Amino acid sequence: MTMQTPLAAAARPLQAGSPPAGWSHQHLLDLEELTAEEITLILDTAVLCKEATEGCRRKIDVLAGSAVVNLFFENSTRTKTSFSLAARRLGADVIDFSASTSSLSKGESFIDTAKNLQAMGIDAVVVRHGTPGTPHLLASHLNVGVINAGDGPHAHPTQGLLDILSIRERLGDLKGLTVGLVGDIAHSRTARSNIWGLTKLGAKVILCGPPTLVADGWRELGVEVSHDLDAILPRCDVLNLLRIQFERQHTRPFPSVREYAHLYAMNRDRLRRAKKDLVILAPGPINRGVEVTADVADCPQSLILDQVTNGLAVRMAVLWLICGGRSSTQASKAAEGRIV
């Protein structure tokens, strides 16, 4: 069945070899390099993708003929699955790469592996790696789009974008909003991407957590630093509750999980003392009883599952912006806006 969609209308201006209007990047490596207008373009495109696919549930053929490789060297549930689904929702072929069963185990270098994948005619690589800067290294060696799905504690641009999209859907314009990022800021790539995106769109950001995890040096990025959640709580329009990343820590940053939860977990009592329309986010995986109690995680003010859906929409938007102008065949199919 042929159906005209908002995404089809948005895709019409695409020409072979040209990116969509307002987008000039071959890669998405972090939000630091993007302007507020470019971030808004991704968010607006995500809305179109969401509408065109009826809530990210239907398939459209705008990237038919494209191939996307998921190159994940760290464990992932939401990010890897949503990138795979996003590419398939747009009609692209997806290759889920397994490092343990690849020629990397035989001594082939990371770059040689990526170049061999490129030689097979792929259009984009989605990479997650524990070493900061890995996506930038790939981008300097490949002629295809590189999308950062998380590089160590450095950046996670699509997570930052989906968090911002979730806030925008609930509260509207971000200008003037106060967003608290609470938890393990020191090891959080999500925190870094949120800081860049939120501040560029006009929000005020407060970082909150134990002094061992939230250093004063963060103020250089134009954010406020606090170690007292109860003190900042009445001012916040949004709280983004970040997981304690024990796997990246070499020493215990606080005496016990129980003490951390007492000081920083979002619970029902704190929710009662917050703004009535406070929005609760958590990038996942969440540890119930540590960053957030179960009743708050599942309350109407929680957008935790909305974030997952919006992750799919954002990743569709990014893939379309990165891959959408790569061939005349894809542009033609995009203009048709076919739903299957």
What does this 3D model show about the protein?
With 340 residues, this protein is of the alpha/beta class. The protein folds into two domains: 6-154 and 311-336, Aspartate/ornithine carbamoyltransferase (Rossmann fold), CATH 3.40.50; 157-306, Rossmann fold. Helix content is 39%, strand content 13%. The protein contains 13 helices and nine strands. It has helices spanning 6-11, 36-52, 78-89, 110-119, 134-141, 157-171, 189-200, 229-232, 257-264, 268-273, 294-297, 304-323, 328-336; strands at residues 67-72, 93-98, 124-129, 145-151, 178-182, 204-208, 224-226, 238-241, 279-281. The strands form two sheets. The chain has a five-stranded parallel β-sheet with strand order 7-6-5-8-9. α6 crosses α12.
Reading off the top of the CATH hierarchy, the class of the largest domain is best stated as: Alpha Beta
Order of helices and strands: HHEHEHEHEHEHEEHEHHEHHH
User: Would you identify the regions where 5 or more consecutive residues have pLDDT less than 50?
Assistant: 10-18, 327-340
Helix content: 25-40%
- How many beta strands in the DSSP annotation? 9
Query: How many domains, in number, for the residues?
Result: 2
**Rg over alpha carbons:** 20 Å
CATH-assigned fold name of the largest domain: Rossmann fold
Number of helices: 13
Strand order of the largest sheet: 7-6-5-8-9
- Give the structural class: alpha/beta
Q: How far apart are the termini?
A: 7 Å
- Spatial shape: globular
Q: State which percent range the strand residues make up.
A: 5-15%
